[in-house]
Amino acid sequence: AQHTYKPSKMLRLAILAASLALSSGMALRAGDAVPKVTFKARVRDASIGGENPFTWKDVSTDALFKSKRCVVFALPGAFTPTCSSTHLPGYEKHYDEIKACGVDEVYCLSVNDAFVMRQWGLKQGLNEEEKDGSNPLNPGNFKKVKLIPDGACLFTRGMGMTSVWDTERGFGERSWRYSAVFNDMKIEKLFVEGGAVVQNSGPDPFEVSDATTMLNYLKSKK
């Protein structure tokens, strides 16, 4: 009789981890180039009218980061506890202070689509920028912290920050929690929680990617 080979659960997880490592490469470090990708954003278009006056817009990393000094913080998911209670609110609270330290813009990135990111921003009480979406530096139509939808995980893979929480939280491919300063498409500084990406981590560390740590670093470089 013919037997069908079924790999064990541990082997399947090992294969998945290996494939993710190959697709994302090693985690980037200070001095490395920022990945060049295009985000699929939703921006306001008054000509559409109705209750959902938004249209698709391609926003490139060049448009966001080239010839600029930007702060980017990434997190595992919109609407999740730490991301919603502390991570995003901290950067929103300190937005003006961060910009006063020689920063052009502050961005929050998550492996979620543009629809989810906008609704999360509204739920968080972020103020919308009531414009027509012509601003190439605003992928999420919010006035202060701008939300970047890395829905296809292309940027996260390019950063080497891919993490999977399938057995822990039922998450697929997401971003590990980190913050960074990008200076003209180069990584100036990188704060990675726990010092390295962990797959199926039980804990969700939040110690170095917070707004206060970032602000202290920026002040030290003024």
UniProtKB/TrEMBL annotation:
Gene Ontology BP annotations: cell redox homeostasis; cellular response to oxidative stress; hydrogen peroxide catabolic process
Record GO cellular component, one term: cytoplasm
Coiled-coil residues: none
Gene Ontology terms for molecular function: thioredoxin peroxidase activity
Residues covered by the Thioredoxin domain: 28-222
The protein's name in its UniProt record: Thioredoxin domain-containing protein
Assigned protein family: Belongs to the peroxiredoxin family. Prx5 subfamily.
Functional note: Thiol-specific peroxidase that catalyzes the reduction of hydrogen peroxide and organic hydroperoxides to water and alcohols, respectively. Plays a role in cell protection against oxidative stress by detoxifying peroxides.
Taxonomic placement: Eukaryota, Cryptophyceae, Cryptomonadales, Cryptomonadaceae, Cryptomonas
Active site positions, chain numbering: C83 (cysteine sulfenic acid (-soh) intermediate)
N-terminal signal peptide: 1-25
Keyword terms: Antioxidant, Oxidoreductase, Peroxidase, Redox-active center, Signal
